[in-house]
Write a structure and sequence with these properties.
This is ABC transporter ATP-binding protein. It holds the Pfam family ABC_tran. Keywords: ATP-binding, Nucleotide-binding, Transport. GO terms for molecular function: ATP binding. It comes from Lactobacillus bombicola. The protein is an alpha/beta fold. The strands form two sheets. Strands 6-7-8-3-9-10 form a six-stranded mixed beta sheet, sandwiched between helices. Strands 2-1-4-5 form a four-stranded antiparallel beta sheet, covered by helices on one side. Helix 2 crosses helix 3 and helix 3 crosses helix 4. It folds into two domains: 172 residues, P-loop containing nucleotide triphosphate hydrolases (Rossmann fold); 68 residues, no CATH class. A hairpin with a 2-residue loop joins strand 4 and strand 5. The radius of gyration is 19 Å and the shape is globular. It starts with a strand and ends in a 7-residue tail after the last helix.
């Protein structure tokens, strides 16, 4: 299978009062075409730092990040990487969904003659075509979250970085967002997902990377992580949440 993303031996240090804080230490992993890979770990484990380096918002102190075999370290936000941080901010609430996406299409340097077609394409993918001319300020949280994903899809990126895509959403709306993410994977888009919702990771991730104290603690499928945790039940397999909670004490920084 073709590797879309290769992260090789990434290190990131921060310095305060001449003391070194190791945010990331020797992080390496791959994401294949159409694969959903999830980062799991406690707050402060290094997940956001990894996403920021891949997204071009932060430089590592060592290591490589390759997209389709091409180094992207030191570049600004890469046109083949879409980033969705979600939340209530990021859009002009008095403008329509279409007008907002036109603004971001300009920022993404999509030629003006192609913008209408491109905006129609991404709105259709996230099922917002019927509200394209509605002011974003009148959107529900779920609609806004889908618009964030539409924005990230402008320019047809090969890799999508999704940070907590269903945070704060009710069960039904969260399910629709997960369905959208799964559909993107089926279209061949590779996805790096961060989420604190274990059921979401369990439902979506092809591969899971467990991060602790800036290092990779474990990688594999849900079944692999469950096995690593050594949590056992008489009548059923352990869930990912039960397994993660068993591993959590080993992931914290000392």
């Amino acid at each position: 299978m073709e590797n879309i993303l290769e992260v090789k031996n990434i290190k990131k240090y921060y310095y305060s009062n001449s003391e070194q804080f190791r945010a990331l230490e020797d992080i390496s992993f791959n994401i294949e075409k159409g694969q959903i890979v999830s980062l799991l770990g406690p707050n402060g484990a290094g997940k956001t730092t990894i996403v920021s380096i891949i997204g071009g918002y932060l430089l590592p102190d060592a290591g490589q990040v390759l997209l389709n075999g091409e180094s992207i370290i030191g570049t600004t936000k890469h046109p083949r990487i879409g980033v969705s941080f979600g939340g209530d901010l990021g859009f002009y609430h008095r403008a329509t969904a279409r007008q907002n996406l036109a603004f971001f299409a300009d920022l993404a340097r999509i030629p003006y003659r192609q913008q209408e077609t491109e905006i129609d394409r991404v709105l259709k993918i996230v099922s917002l075509s019927d509200v394209a001319n509605k002011n974003v300020g009148k959107f529900s949280k779920g609609m806004t979250q889908r618009l964030h994903i539409a924005r990230a899809l402008l320019g047809n990126p090969k890799l999508l970085l999704l940070d907590e895509p269903t945070s704060g959403l009710d069960v039904e709306i969260a399910k629709s967002i997960r369905d959208t993410v799964k559909n993107l994977s089926d279209l061949g888009i590779s996805i790096l997902l961060t989420s604190h919702t274990m059921s979401e990771v369990e439902a979506l991730a092809d591969n899971i990377i467990v991060i602790g104290a800036g290092r990779i603690f474990s990688t594999g499928t849900v079944e692999d992580i469950v096995k690593k945790s050594q949590v056992e039940h008489i009548d059923r397999p352990a869930t990912l949440e039960e397994s993660y909670l068993a591993l959590a004490p080993k992931l914290r920084r000392k």
